[in-house]
Structures are given as C-alpha cells and as structure tokens.
C-alpha cells in the first residue's frame, strides 16, 4: 500500500522556535466555554513549552469582542505583549449571526495586527456544528485535533519574525 501523504496542516518551522524573551497574550471568549477551555489551555501549555517569559490572559464575552480586546492589550500600559492569540469559537445557528460575526472577527483581528504592528493570531474556529468544534478542540472520544498548540507556535514564530525585522 502507498505511504499515506499528509497534505493539510502546519508544517515544521525551518528552525526551532523559542519563546524566550517574549510575552504573549491570549484573549478568549466565554461563548462556547467547553470548546474554548480546550483551545485556551492547549495554546497556553504550548506557549509555556516553547519557553515564553509570560502568558497574559483576558476573557471577553464573544468572538465579536476579540479584536477590541487584542488592541486594548497591545496598546495598554499594563500587559505589554509581543503577540496576541485570539481564541474563539463560532458555531452556525439558524440566523445570519454566524456570518456577520465570522466576518467582523476575522477582518477585525487582521486589522489590529496590521494597524499595531504586533502579530495577532486568528485562533477562531468557524464550525457548522458542535461536533466540528469539539473535534478541533481535542474533545472528541478519538482525541480529535486541538488547534490551540498550533496557534501558540504561530504566535511565537511571528513574534520572533517581527523582532528580527527591527
Ligand atoms: C451572539 C452570538 C452568537 C449567536 N453566537 C456566537 C458564537 O457562536 N460564538 C461567539 O463567540 N459569540 C457568539 N455570539 C456573541 C457575539 O460574539 C458578541 O459577543 C455579541 O454579539 C455582543 O457583541
């Protein structure tokens, strides 16, 4: 049988990423709490494994509020950060809410990063049902695939990239 080829997913970084000297923020939502807890804790554990100096966490109500919170964290004097991971989970319902919030959150998160010059990572699941969300937070019986650790790696990689450009 031919060897299985994995196509999707985050490939290995060219060199090992270290979080030494970095402070990384996680802003996360209260909406869809169970899924968020899996993602947030997976992200935080990976940031710590990568050796970041500090993880600063702030909670917001929903995904719509994530860009504002990321900007406040970046521009505030209290918790200076080198990157922010926005952790959220949108699950499609019966109305158009899903579409509007997905659009606002994704555009807002991108804008905060570009406007402030601090990497802001899109850690928002946009799922069609609960099962998709649970799987992507590593909470299904088969273990699923928790995306939180990948967002941590991305935050550290981008913060190091930014630092090397200065
Ligand atoms: C209103 C709403 C809905 C319907 N669904 C979600 C969701 O699946 N995930 C999420 O993070 N937030 C949701 N929200 C709340 C909005 O993001 C926001 O908090 C409110 O509209 C107030 O601005």
From TrEMBL:
The protein's Enzyme Commission number: 2.5.1.78
Pfam families the record matches: DMRL_synthase
Keywords, sorted A to Z: Riboflavin biosynthesis, Transferase
Keyword Transferase: yes
Catalysed transformations (reactions): (2S)-2-hydroxy-3-oxobutyl phosphate + 5-amino-6-(D-ribitylamino)uracil = 6,7-dimethyl-8-(1-D-ribityl)lumazine + phosphate + 2 H2O + H(+)
Pathway: Cofactor biosynthesis; riboflavin biosynthesis; riboflavin from 2-hydroxy-3-oxobutyl phosphate and 5-amino-6-(D-ribitylamino)uracil: step 1/2
HAMAP family membership: Lumazine_synth
Protein purpose: Catalyzes the formation of 6,7-dimethyl-8-ribityllumazine by condensation of 5-amino-6-(D-ribitylamino)uracil with 3,4-dihydroxy-2-butanone 4-phosphate. This is the penultimate step in the biosynthesis of riboflavin.
Protein known as: 6,7-dimethyl-8-ribityllumazine synthase
Source organism of this protein record: Durusdinium trenchii
């Amino acid at each position: 049988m031919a060897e299985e080829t994995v196509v999707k997913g985050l490939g290995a970084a060219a060199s090992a990423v270290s979080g030494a000297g970095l402070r990384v923020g996680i802003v996360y939502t209260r909406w869809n709490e169970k899924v968020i807890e899996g993602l947030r804790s997976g992200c935080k554990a990976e940031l710590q494994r990568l050796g970041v100096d500090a993880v600063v966490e702030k909670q917001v109500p929903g995904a719509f509020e994530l860009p504002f919170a990321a900007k406040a964290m970046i521009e505030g004097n209290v918790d200076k950060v080198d990157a922010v991971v926005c952790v959220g989970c949108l699950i499609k319902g019966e109305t158009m809410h899903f579409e509007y919030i997905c659009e606002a959150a994704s555009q807002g998160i991108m804008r905060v990063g570009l406007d402030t010059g601090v990497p802001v990572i899109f850690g928002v699941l946009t799922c069609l049902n609960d099962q998709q969300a649970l799987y992507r937070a590593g909470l299904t019986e088969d273990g699923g695939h928790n995306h939180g650790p990948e967002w941590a790696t991305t935050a550290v990689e981008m913060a190091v990239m930014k630092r090397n450009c200065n």
